[in-house]
Structures are given as C-alpha cells and as structure tokens.
Predict the structure of tRNA(Arg) A34 adenosine deaminase TadA.
Amino acid sequence: MTHDDERLLRRAIELAASARAAGNPPFGSLLAASDGTILVEERNTSLTDRDITAHPELKLARWAARELDPATAATTTMYTSCQPCGMCAGAIARSGLGRVVYALSGEQLDGLKPPGSAFADPPTEGPALYDEARVPVEGYYV
C-alpha cells in the first residue's frame, strides 16, 4: 500500500462519515485515475434516496461504465471504506475497473454489527426449464 493509497482510502473513510452524518449507512467510495487524481466521489444514499441499490461502489461502477472507455477504466482504482458487497462486486467486475482498495473487510464489518442484523438470503430454487431458458441466450456471447 502506497502513501497515495492511504491518502485516498482515508478520503473514502471521510465520505463514509459524511454519509452517516446525512442519515445513511456509513459507506463512502471514490474512483481515482492512475496518477491519484480523484475522478468522482460517492456516498451511500440508500436511506435518503429510498433506493436499496444506492451504494457508493455501485454508483461509481455505473459512472465508470458510462463515462470511461474500457482502456481508461482499466487504469483506475476504486477506494472504498468497506469491502464491496456481492451486488457491488458484480458491477465493479462488469465496469472493467482496474483495482479496488478497501478499508474494512466484510468480516470486520460483520463484527461491528449487533448479532442478528445481517440480511437473510431468501430461499431459491433452480435451475429449471433449461431448454426454454437457453433459447434467448444461445449465440449472444459470441
């Protein structure tokens, strides 16, 4: 971890504090160019926006996919106050960002929460109807 990494990670932690002060979950993230220039910053706004997907990492991944060409996105680093959740990690992978640096791990975050506060995964069933479901997909990824 470089001095620049630590500086930018501290800024992400400041953004998390700002999110909490605004009544939202305490998470903040930023996207930086390869030279350490901050391109964009985001805070969690899931409560004030009434949007369960308003995580800062997801917002940055969307921004990068929309605003950066793939070569430029691959040179960026996301700095985030906490390890991205599964939803955000999927968006980050699809956006083509080059690197993610986080402060708290998901396990450390869970250790800071009261017992029983984790989201429960709903029961799932599948796969099913393979022959029908594959029809619109076949040939798409060529």
Remarks:
- The helical segments are 3-21, 56-67, 70-73, 86-95, 106-112, 130-133.
- The beta strands are 28-32, 38-43, 77-82, 99-104.
- Residues 76 and 121 are 32 Å apart (CA to CA).
- The chain is about 40% helix and 15% strand.
